[in-house]
Amino acid sequence: MVKIYVYLVKAGLKKLEEVPAIIRDQVKKALEDENKILLGMALVTGAFLVFKFKRGEKDMAVIYASLIVSGYKTFGQVPKVIQAQVKEVLIQLGLGELAE
Asked: DSSP state, 70?
């Protein structure tokens, strides 16, 4: 039943508030888990493409930006020598506030 409601919420046919209260938390968790999996896949794909087609500081900036977006690192944990490049990448992603 949870999978059905996950599909309905994702398709926009139901709102999370319309899911029966008894399984609402399970549906919410399933949606969050699915989003994390998709984000992880996007990060891995992005990292692969960076390593495949580019080299240097820009690679590291993209990797650190990905880690910041996914919540594994903070901007303060980025080495000072590439903070400017990481900030530039975050701004390009429309997430400049993460570089503060």
From this structure: T
Burial 81-100 (b: 16+ CB within 10 A, else e): ebeebbbbbbeeeeeeebbe
Q: What does the CA dihedral 52, 38, 61, 65 come to, rounded to 10 degrees? A: 180
- Side-chain half-sphere exposure of 74, counting CA atoms within 13 A: 3
Domain limits, the chain: 1-53, 55-100
**Residue range 59-85, pLDDT digits in tens:** 788 888 988 988 888 999 998 988 999
Chain-centre distance for alpha carbon 25 = 21
